Amino acid sequence: MTLKIDTDEPVELRDFVGAFTSLANEFERYVDTTYSEVKSDPKMYVREVRSGCIEADIFTGLVAVAATAITHMDQVLILEDFVKRWGQRFSFLSKGEVPEGELETTKELKDWADAAQSIASDPIGGHRLEVAHFEDGERKIRASFRFTASEARTALENIEDRKKLLNKPDTETHKRVLLVFTRSDVNDAKPGKRSGELVKIEEISEKPMPLVYGSEIAEEQIKHEIRDADDNVYHKGFIVDVIVKVANGGKPVAYSVTDLHQIIDIGD
């Protein structure tokens, strides 16, 4: 398998390394998820560096972990399939599409961004990956894919959008849970923004979380208890409906109160 990077401008060293390590990471991931009887230890060997071109051979290090041996043609077919999938992936990324049934991880997105970065700032850059084998002394290309600098820039933009979607908190709704204050604030909060208050809902988490007011009515009722009531807000419990904002990994990061049903005395 050969990777060729055409450039008109010098390539920053980190981007140069990333172009190869990202490909190795993706190939290893592909083998692990596709062939249970094969393991891969890919290695990169730069064959030629000349003005306007960097060319490297990729030794895949495919090893059978089962009793069945891997023939030369088996390896060629695996590499051929990988190059085709690599090309399909970047075609999807350049169009801003997600293959049906496939969920990307942050690590995958980083690898694909590293692969595109080396040519993205080059006006005429190109990235070409191909697999070939020799038959009767003649080199025959089995699969080849090339993407251009403009396609790389579009892919990078779509990758950033995809990262933001992955990092965007999900939400869960909980009805009639007990909320207590661990820090209060007499000031008004902007609608939908975090207030200066921390609250605890033990049914959801033992840790205090920032409070967001998802309803003006609920905010008015709760702020009245903080500002104007004679008794201490820390001695009160609020039976509320909340939308729990959840980060990656399912951990709550904030509570948004949408309805206040009841205020109870919880004592000291």
Describe the structure.
The chain is α+β, with helices and mostly antiparallel strands and 268 residues long. It contains 5 helices and 12 strands. The chain has 2 domains: 2-167, no CATH class; 170-265. The chain has helices at residues 13-34, 72-95, 106-120, 149-167, 216-227, and strands at residues 2-6, 38-39, 43-50, 53-59, 63-64, 126-135, 138-148, 170-183, 194-201, 205-213, 236-246, 252-265. The strands form 3 sheets. Strands 3-4-1-6-7 form a 5-stranded antiparallel β-sheet. Strand 6 and strand 7 form a beta hairpin. Helix 1 (13-34) packs across helix 3 (106-120) and helix 2 crosses helix 4 (149-167). The radius of gyration is 28 Å and the shape is elongated. It starts with a strand and ends with a strand.
Question: What descriptors fit this protein?
Answer:
268 residues; alpha+beta; 2 domains; 5-stranded antiparallel β-sheet; 5-stranded mixed β-barrel; 5 helices; 12 strands; 38% strand; elongated
Could you provide a short overview of the structure?
Helices cover 34% and strands 38% of the residues. It has 268 residues and is α+β, with helices and mostly antiparallel strands.
List the helices and strands and how they pair.
Layout: E1 2-6, H1 13-34, E2 38-39, E3 43-50, E4 53-59, E5 63-64, H2 72-95, H3 106-120, E6 126-135, E7 138-148, H4 149-167, E8 170-183, E9 194-201, E10 205-213, H5 216-227, E11 236-246, E12 252-265
Parallel strand pairs: 10-12
Antiparallel strand pairs: 1-4, 1-6, 2-5, 3-4, 6-7, 8-9, 8-11, 9-10, 11-12
Helix pairs in contact: 1-3, 2-4, 3-4
